[in-house]
Specification:
single chain; 173 residues; mainly alpha; 2 domains; 0% strand
Amino acid sequence: MNELIKQTLANLGLMAIGGVSSFLAAKYWFWKSFETHEQSQRDLDLYKLTSKVYELEKQLALVGAQVLPISAAYQAVLVKELTHFHTPEMDALLDKLLQFHVITDEEMNRLKVLLIERENSINGEITEEERDAARILPIVAKRAKLAMSIVNDLKLQVLTVVPEPPLSSFRKK
């Protein structure tokens, strides 16, 4: 009987050791997978944040490349409407007007004279819309020049933020 008790106690001891070791192994692998999941989530968050930063950099670069005051864009529309093949002097001056800081004050005065002639032309070659464009172009050109000088004085800088790579990329897999 003594032998039977020893075997029963030995079996119970082995079962207890097996149960404890199984519990500890399960707990270890659970926490190991939990840490891996947390690291994966941090890597995913970092990737999303980095993607947003790159997208914002692209948008900022696009905005910086396309800063054009509305008055300058409207001036370009008026110039297109007033450009004709049979008026080479005015066309050359209008072309210079579109290139800011190229047209001189004397050329601008000459362009104003030509625009007044175009506005007062009664030979039926120009429409009422073109007449209106000739009337308002000098005013719009003045405002566009002022707006472009303000835009040129702005100092826009694009800062690039390069995040460090996630630590998981350095871990041995």
